Amino acid sequence: MVNRKDLDPEESPAAEFGVLLRRLRDERGWTQDDLGVRMRISGTHISAVETNRRPPTPQFARSADRALGTGDLLTRKVRAVRNTSLLEGFPEFVKQEIRAAELRLFELGIIPGLLQTPEYAAAITQGAVRRGAISEQQAEERLTLLAKRQTSLVRDPAPIVHVVLDESCLRRLVGGPHVMSAQLESIVAFGELPNTVLQVAPYDLGERRSFDLPIHLLTLPERTFLAYSESAQQGMLERDYTAVQPLLTAYHQLQAEALSQTASMAMIEQVRKGIS
Question: Is 83 within 8 Å of 13 (Cβ atoms)?
Fold first, then answer.
């Protein structure tokens, strides 16, 4: 079969669902269009779910179970997909992040995941557990994925990483003074690496700050560009260069307005000494 995408069921619960759906369809000798006709949706929709470009809904799973005669197999599987703490688009973003040649990050309020120490990351996830926002299992899922993402920074060749931190990332005390002091010390060490550029966007930047939400911009080895942004409840992965290009321009403007790396390091050290 031409252009048949390989699937990795361990990528995420949604990917595992897609692999199972494809296997069940293949066992019956049906094309995506064949299954789509039986479910009264398009074959393109089936393809998007199978290849983890579109998350399956409970309604989709029930309809697929009826069409495939699989009882409630897919309906039960979709509960694992719905139970994940990862926002839509994020698993695919991570897949691209670990092979990117260049990364550009902007973060508000908390240190970006790629730069978090294990203690800082644990404090953030446990805070979410205590609020009831995620379960203990989901917290473990987040921490495991974060550790996997961080290994991508030490590959060979190492990616070029640009980071702009809003000043709020430094001022918000997470995990207590000891954890926060160690986190800031780790950031300074990160900024001293030859493949990194680290800057702080101070509070007095005011309306000149380009972004009001966190943003991740990737340059892939083939020189294509991706953008990932998220709110509290939704993540969005953008591949269209006409949509990504204005974000790249805004990021460059932010870097021009932010403190220099030398001044940024001085601010981080000043904050760290103030909480030690």
Answer: yes
**pLDDT, greater one: 211 or 92:** 211
Boundary-marking domain end, from 82, 110, 134: 82
The total of other beta-carbon atoms located within 10 Å of residue 8's CB is: 12
Is residue 6, in this structure, part of any structural domain at all? no
Separation of CA 146 from chain center = 9
Say which residues have a Cβ less than 8 Å from residue 152's Cβ, sequence separation at least 6: 97, 98, 99, 100, 159
Q: Per residue in 244-273, pLDDT tens?
A: 999 999 999 999 999 999 999 999 999 999
Q: Show the tokens assigned to 152.
A: 């991508």
- pTM of the shown model: 0.70
CATH code where residue 76 lies: 1.10.260.40
Is there a domain that residue 3 lies in?
no
How deeply is 212 buried, as exposed, middle or buried, from its count of CB atoms within 10 A (0-12, 13-18, 19+)? Answer: exposed
In a domain, 116, yes or no: yes
Q: Would you state the pLDDT for residue 1? A: 44
CA 8 to centroid of chain Cα atoms:
18
Phi, psi of 261 (to 5 degrees): -60, -40
DSSP classification of residue 166? E
- The CA-CA-CA angle for residues 114, 118, 124, to 5°, reads 80
Domain containing 48 equals 13-82
- The residues, any chain, with a CB within 8 Å of residue 205's CB and separated by 6 or more, are 257, 258
Residues 45 and 65 in one domain: yes
Residue (of 256, 262, 265) closest to 210 by Cα position: 256
Residues 77 and 94 in one domain: no
The closest alpha carbon to 216, from 198, 189, 235, belongs to 235
